[in-house]
């Protein structure tokens, strides 16, 4: 099994990650879907969208997409460029650390 193989476990971990991330950002699932330009705000539409990113670049591509959205939200709040860089660097590392930790719990050799 390759690292870009989708599984129910990956989907469940991604859902948990997204919910936790949105809570930390003070945003809603609806706001995330709107920022991604999705026609629906339901979780299946969001997962289908992120699954395409996963297949094109694995977990790093999904993390990159979420970091782009986080940067967009921070820009909309009117933070200075220096604050954005510092926050994004820290947030991206935290997000990647959390993804790696979650993925380390998944047995890809099933």
Q: Give the structural class.
A: mainly alpha
First and last CA, distance: 8 Å
Q: How many alpha or pi helices?
A: 4
Q: What level of helicity do the residues show? A: over 70%
Low-confidence spans: 80-87
Q: How many structural domains does the protein architecture include?
A: 1
The geometry reads as globular
Q: Report the average pLDDT across residues.
A: 80
Largest sheet: none
Strand and helix order: HHHH
Strand percent estimate: under 5%
Radius of gyration: 14 Å
How would the blueprint of this fold be written?
Blueprint: H1 8-25, H2 29-35, H3 43-76, H4 81-104
Helix pairs in contact: 1-3, 1-4, 2-3, 3-4
Task: Give an overview of the whole structure.
- The chain is mainly α and 110 residues long.
- It has one domain (8-104).
- It contains four helices and no strands.
- Helix 1 (8-25) runs parallel beside helix 3.
- The protein is globular, with a radius of gyration of 14 Å.
Primary descriptors:
single chain, mainly alpha, globular, 0% strand, 4 helices, 75% helix, 110 residues
In brief, what are we looking at here?
The chain is mainly α and 110 residues long. The chain has helices at residues 8-25, 29-35, 43-76, 81-104.
């Amino acid at each position: 099994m390759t690292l870009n193989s989708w599984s129910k476990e990956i989907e469940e971990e991604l859902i948990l990650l997204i919910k936790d991330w949105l809570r930390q950002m003070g945003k809603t699932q609806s706001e995330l879907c709107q920022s991604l330009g999705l026609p629906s705000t339901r979780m299946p539409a969001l997962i289908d969208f992120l699954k395409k990113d996963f297949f094109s670049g694995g977990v790093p591509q999904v993390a990159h997409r979420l970091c782009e959205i986080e940067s967009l939200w921070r820009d909309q709040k009117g933070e200075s460029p220096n604050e954005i860089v510092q926050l994004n660097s820290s947030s991206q590392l935290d997000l990647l650390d959390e993804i790696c930790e979650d993925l380390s719990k998944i047995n890809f050799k099933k």
